[in-house]
Amino acid sequence: MEVAAPERHCRPAASPFDLEDAVTYRRWRDWKLACRPARIEELVVDVGDARELAPVELKALRLRIERCGFALYRCAHGVDDRALPRLLGDQLGMRRLDANWLADEDGISRITVSGQADGHGRFIPYTDLPIRWHTDGYYHPQQRRIRGMILHCVRPALSGGENALLDHELAYIALRDISPAHVRALMQPDAMTIPERTDENGVARAAQAGPVFSVDADGGLHMRYTARTRSIEWKDDGPTRAAVSRLEALLGDPCFPGTFRVRLQAGMGLVGHNVLHDRSAFRDDPLRPRLLLRARFLDRVPPAEEPWRNG
User: Fold this and answer.
1) What local confidence, expressed as pLDDT, does residue 100 receive?
2) 8 Å CB contact between 276 and 133
3) Cα separation, 270 vs 36, whole angstroms
4) Which parts of the chain fold into alpha helices (H)?
5) Which one of 39, 69, 84, 134 is least enclosed by Cβ atoms within 10 Å?
C-alpha cells in the first residue's frame, strides 16, 4: 500500500511592500538606494538593432530595468518600423500588448501631433502641450493595468519634448520613509477615481476607482497615478489628502533623487516598467514632425533574480 507524500506548504516570500514587515522593507530599500544611478548615462545601452538584440545588449537592458525600473537604448538612427516595439518587448518577456482604442490594430500607437478630425487630437499625448507626471493607463480597470512600456523615437521635435523619468519605487520609498500611513492611504481600493468619459454615443469609459500603489501577483509594485487636477477624484478623507499632498510635493521637487530628464533623439527609446514620467511642451518642424512609437504591455519585464534577498 502506497503512503501519500506529506503535503508541502510553501510560505510566500516576504514582501518589501508589506507595511507590517519593516525588516524586509529595510533590506530591499537599502539595496534599491545603493543601485540608484547618479547619472542618466548609467541607464543608456548602445544597441545595434533593437529588433534583434545581441545577448550582451539584452543582459545590459535587463540589469538596468531590474535595478532602476527602466533603461534607455540608443540605436544609430531612427527606424520607423511598427514591429520594433513588439519585437523588443518580446525579447524582454513583455508580450501582452494593450490594445487601447487609440492604438492601431497591432497595438502600437504612433504618437504625433494630430488634428481633431481623426479623434486623437482631443487627447493630450497627440498635442504639443506639456503633460504632467503620470503613469500610463491610470484610467484602466485593475485587470488591464499597464505594467510595461516602450517609447521609441523615430523623429524628435524641432525643440522641446523632453521627458522626466522617475522609478516609481523611489517615490514609494520616499513616502514610506516619511510615514507608512501615506502608503497605506494610497493603497486603499478607492484612493483615486477617474470619472466616466462620455462621447456622442454615451458612456465611452466607465468610472474607474482603484489604489495608487498595489502589489502584483508576481510581487512587483504597481503605481497608478496622474498629477492632473481635472477629471480626478481623490478619496475625501484626511489620510488620503495628506498622502496626495506629500506625493505632489516630492514630484514637484526638481532635485528629487533619481529624477532624470532626457530628450529622446532619433533611434533612442525608453523601455521598462510603467514608471513615472512627464513631457515638456515642444515645437515641431512642419516637414518632419515629432514621431514616437509607443507600446504598452500588460506584462512587466520578469525579474531574473532578487539579489537584495541575499544581502
Assistant:
1) 64
2) yes
3) 17
4) 22-35, 55-68, 83-91, 168-178, 180-186, 238-251
5) 39
Residue 109 contacts by C-beta under 8 Å, 6 or more apart in sequence? 100, 102, 103, 125, 293, 294, 295, 296
Report residue 292: phi and psi, to 5°: -125, 145
| CA nearest to 75, candidates 52, 95, 41, 55 | 52
Domains plus CATH for the chain?
22-157+259-310 (3.60.130.10)
Q: How far apart are CA 92 and CA 248, in angstroms?
A: 32
Cα 68 to Cα 86, 119, 130, 184, distances in angstroms: 22, 36, 25, 23
Sign of CA pseudo-dihedral 13, 16, 18, 21: positive
Can you give the pTM of this predicted structure? 0.91
CA 54 to chain CA centroid, nearest Å:
25
- pLDDT tens figures, 213-265: 999 998 999 999 999 888 799 999 999 999 999 999 999 999 999 999 999 99
